[in-house]
Amino acid sequence: MIVRCTKPDGSTATIDFAAPNTISIPLRRTMADNPNAYGLTAPTIEPFRAGEFIGSVAEGAPVNCEVMTLVPHGNGTHTECVGHIATGGFWIADAGLPWTGWAVLITVQPEQDGGDYIIYEHTIKSALAPYGLHGCDAVIIRTAPNGDWKKRHTWSGTNPPYLHSNCGVFLRESGIKHLILDLPSVDRETDGGVLAAHHAFWNYPESPRLDATITEMVYVDDSLPDGLYVASIHTLAVESDASPSVVALYRSE
Prior knowledge:
- The chain has 3 helices and 17 strands.
- By secondary structure, it is mainly beta.
- It folds into 2 domains: 2-23 and 77-251, Glucose Oxidase, domain 1; 31-69, no CATH class.
- The strands form 5 sheets. A 7-stranded mixed barrel has the order 8-15-14-12-9-16-17. A 3-stranded mixed β-sheet has the order 10-11-13. The chain has a two-stranded antiparallel sheet with strand order 1-2.
- Helix 2 packs parallel to helix 3 (196-202).
């Protein structure tokens, strides 16, 4: 479906919603084919079994009926709400998803600081400078180096790159509601539970942003140039802090 719409700068764009560029990583049936973070258990997908019933056509049942066990935060692309760090029953089902709107894709190089690789506010501002954020609700951060190894990488115990908390403040104050990135977390893998970037972006506990989300562990192929896109985020409507998600980018011509 081709739609003509107005871009944030007032010009006219053509969006082909029949041609999504999916940047979420599918949940595969084998551990080696999935990324992993925080040493969390890999997803399992297997036939439901009860008595003599086995939910597998291959094993003689009339239908396939499977049980899926997963931990969204460690099993691939997932979207989380403020409930990830808050008390009080904030659920991803209530975070205003699905969402579709304008987004900016940027590529950044984390800077080495001791044994850490950190994405600083000045790096994000520099990458955004050619595009601006006017009229945009989302920022997608692709980190260098990039490659499809991110689709099955074991991040656990590697101290992956992360965002300085000032990035969370900057994006929040810029009106960004949806932060999307190809790392396992916006915060350091082990930080004593501080989670500074999460807190800064969601403005928790001062004034929690209930309709703001963070999506982690996407993969953005290098064939997609930095710039303005229409983006969409879809999750399960589940009463949990996070859900596996599908994220797509649509080119604006």
